[in-house]
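Our consortium's second objective concerns turning raw sequence data into structural hypotheses that experimental partners can test. To show how far this objective has progressed, the report includes one record in full. It was chosen at random from the queue rather than selected for favorable results. The single chain below, 508 residues long, was entered without modification.
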Amino acid sequence: MSVSRDGVTSSGGTLLKRLIAWSTRSTHYLYRYRPRFHERAFWVVQGLIIVIAVMHDYGESVGLLTQLGALYFLTLSLFFVPLVYAALHFGFVGSLATAMWVMIVTIPDWLFWHHALDERLGVILSLAIVNGLSIFVGQRIDREKTARQNAESSGAALKVSEIKYRNLFESSPVPVLVLDSTGAILETNPAANRLFDIQMKTGQKGHLTDLIGERNARKLIDSPEADEQSAETFSIKLDDGSNIRLKPTLTQLVDGQDDTVIQAVLRDVTDEYNRQVGLREYAASVTRTQEDERQRIARELHDETIQSLILLCRQLDSAETYGEDLPLSVTTELSEARKTAASVVTGLREFTTSLRPPALDDLGIITAIRRLVREHKDRSGIDTRLEVSGEYRKMTSDTELGIFRIAQEALSNAARHSGATGITVILSYTETEVKLEVSDNGTGFSLPSATTDFTTTPHLGIIGMQERAGLFGGKLRIQSSPGTGTKVTASVRISGTLAEISDSPADI
């Protein structure tokens, strides 16, 4: 295989560039481990080591060290002084370089003056112990320096963060309160001072109940623990007589004494709340008007149209009975007309029932939902069951109608979209709550991240159920995922006297 000169030159140039780059990275990496060659004290220490080594070698040459007996290694231990000094002042790298220098300058000692193996091993072992101790000290010094630097860096960063937080706290146009776990006010920002007309004296602490009332304060303090959460909005009356609505966002923090404090950011949502109230009242009015119109249409269809069709059926029966002399074709037409009229009556009755079920007004919500489930089972062919538990509590007609409509919509959605083979409807009563659950074993679907995102999906029926629940003060929850079915839960808090359930809670 032949390689051109240009190819060889290019390959060599690339290899040279890689070597240069590797050398640069290695030099940069090892730079921080360099001995302190530029410091004068470092060379003084190395010179002291040479002096100790010369003294030791001189004592060996004239026989002075042999006269010390058990203290023979005293001069070798003198190396510990410069080694420890190097470790304390230059860290691990300085102690390592100094230890290597000690081993080098002591080579003549154990090489020329000690011929026995045990004597050489004794000298080398003594030097190794002294060097090892100095290197250990150097490592500890480096760790202590690193820890101190990290602590200083963290302290500086914390100080900067505190300054930023303080600036944000002071300049925020939103009222901010810092509270302890009992609701005592630890600190307030200028916006909160202006809102509540706070004039706190030095060393004097107010309490949250003094600002927003005991009930609202208890709601905030007793909120479920969380790193950050938005509590329910509440209304307060200011000194000028005006009412404003605040939405608190609570954040748990830890102060310098490791005590947990609560930061409450109070956002003024008065305008937003008033708009929501207006829209809710408008929606309630529209829904109420719609239900009244449905009831009127259902009543007119039942009292006029259906009755007229029933009369028509009877007239057709009479014509068919007394028209024996009529041709067979005419009799057949009369019979078909009678069947058509009866079919129209049946359809209109089903339509009027869907507009406003009479059982809801006459017999109550349990009977109405029971009939709704039975009709859904007959119409769709899906195994639909109802379970009723608890003791019946009377609700307002609007609330019962809202729960019925949610059940109606949930069953309709399950039949049209889920592909389910079984649906279970559970209506349960407790002392303080009525809960409706409609669950199916269908295909399910992926829930959006926020309930408002349902407006961009085909599941507009869910939006209607949410609006229904909101109108009578209830809550709606959707649980679903692909392949696990769907569960719709509507709940509303109630108060009233107990009454016996007119229908047995047996399953349908």
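The partners drew two points from this record. The longest helix spans residues 117-171. The longest strand covers residues 243-254. Both points have been shared with the crystallography group to help prioritize constructs.
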